[in-house]
Amino acid sequence: MTFVATDPHTHEGKTNIWLTPLPLIRELGEFDLDPCAYPNHQTARRLICLPEDGLTAEWHGRVWLNPPYGKHTQFWLERLAQHGNGIALVFGRLDTKWLQPFIGNGFFAMKGRIKFINEKTLKPDTNAGAQSILIPFGRKNIGAILSSNIEGKWFQ
After folding, report:
1. What pTM did the predictor assign?
2. What domains appear along the chain, each with residue ranges and CATH number?
3. β-bridge pairing 124-127 and 115-117
4. What is the 3-state secondary structure (H, E, C) of 103-116?
5. For the sheet containing 46-47, what is the strand order?
6. For the chain, which terminus, N or C, has the lower number of CB atoms within 10 Å?
């Protein structure tokens, strides 16, 4: 996930830039698009970075989505659900209203917490504030998660 203070879809926290560790993404295969990308952090073939609005841009192919966290997260998940091909990484806060519509077909709860990459040092150092889950959209993406070496448990 990548977001900065000028993004209208942001959550204002300690930091507004969180980079997913690339080995985690590589475990899931290649992605065609990351609509919430950070420059030079190659999460997919096409990166949509601010100031371009990834939420309203055209989406194509298999999408990696680590959306801005906060009150607008559900809009990103709705967009991915409509697109129908990709994997979303979000906090595993199963009690939240915004998450409920997207976990009915299953999700993968990752073991432990992700250490996000610091955009300045490019090293893992920002411990996630909660457990993260992967939500697949499309059968191919369920298979990618289940055949990966990522530790965790599938819930249906």
Report:
1. 0.87
2. 22-155 (3.40.50)
3. antiparallel
4. CCCCEEEECCCCEE
5. 46-47, 33-34, 63-65, 86-91, 132-137, 107-110, 152-155
6. C
SS3 content of the chain, % helix, strand, coil (to 5): 20, 25, 60
Q: Which two tokens stand for residue 59?
A: 């989406």
CA distance 136 to 103: 9
Residue type, 36: C
User: Which one-letter DSSP state was computed for residue 62?
Assistant: S
Are 15 and 32 spatial neighbours (Cβ–Cβ below 8 Å)? no
One digit per residue, the tens of pLDDT, for the chain of length 156 reads: 443 333 444 444 455 577 899 999 999 999 999 999 999 899 999 999 999 999 999 999 999 999 988 778 999 999 999 999 999 999 998 888 889 899 988 999 999 898 888 777 777 776 777 889 999 999 999 999 999 999 999 999
